[in-house]
């Protein structure tokens, strides 16, 4: 088999499910449901006092969810309801 013919394995998706290819495409990149980015662009770790765009995954794309005042508030928002926080 060529490398492009190998079935993709997506965490959290049952490969026996007939809708597995569809469900695999609906998973967020890197498994992150919530992200934040500086309002002015650039790296996330630079200028920790700058405001941040808050974005959440809706099953198709990241959509705006609000604005945080600084890096610490944005990180708290990301951790607040992340799937790993259970």
From TrEMBL:
InterPro entries: DUF6087. Residues 1-46 are annotated as: Disordered. Pfam families: DUF6087 (PF19565). Residues 27-37 have a biased composition (Basic and acidic residues). This is DUF6087 family protein. It comes from Streptantibioticus parmotrematis.
